[in-house]
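Z., the sequence and structure:
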Amino acid sequence: MQVEGLHKSYGALKAVDGIDLEIPRGSCFGLLGPNGAGKTTTIEMMEGIVKADDGRILFKGKPIGGDFKKKVGIQFQNTALPEFITVKETLELFSSFYPHPRPMDELIELCSLLDILNQDNRKLSGGQRQRMLLALAIIPKPEMLFLDEPTTGLDPQARRNFWKLIEGVKAEDTSILLTTHYMDEAQLLCDYIAIMDKGKVLECDTPQKLLEKHFKGVLIRLPHDGDERELPQGAVITGGNLEMQTVDLDASLKKLLSSSYDLTGMTIDKPNLEDLFIKLTGSSLRT
């Protein structure tokens, strides 16, 4: 799927300001950004829900149209489910909407629904609900799957279980567009990521290539108490921490020691997507 020169404005607000994206077939593509970055508007245009002001959205080289909707699955951030019926009845209901739905047994196994089939929709936990919503999204065997913050609010175990389900869907050669506020999730699941802010794409590539482009060596972090003494060369204050990016760890530690900094609470890590996000947007993810 491709996006070329996509624009969308609401009055004076440029929600999406001329972005280009390409999602290779069978890949998981992460669209990341703070609230207000333009992610949701971009996704809604790609889904065919919102009309773009300008630009093209192509699927298999052709502009999206009526047939496109038969080839996609969507898991929205918020979905109202029929009440007073069971999970099994819900799956049967939604399957009846499609001429060639995925076999029920396959759906149940892929999304691990066997243990909750006879449970009322109103009594599902957060993780159970997300598993069922994923099942509803893949009933038509989509070639393109949109997942808009599918694990928000889930506990760590439920998130990890959901990741396995997504990997199972991807293994069917399904292309996935994922938005998330969890950087560990993006780093684990996504083959490619695009970081958006203020309607523009700031960077787009594989997570590893982006990290190699923007960071060298390791990242030293120390809690910073607001002391206004002169910082060691190469150090910055970010989010209440003193940070130093360095390829020479020994020399950097000596600088800190010679500056009489208390090293209690110091961590030494390789930079991750959270660090990249902060560097590019100037802030942590705003949820």
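The first strand starts at residue 2 and ends at 10. The chain has two domains: 2-207, 216-270.

Let me know what you think.
H.
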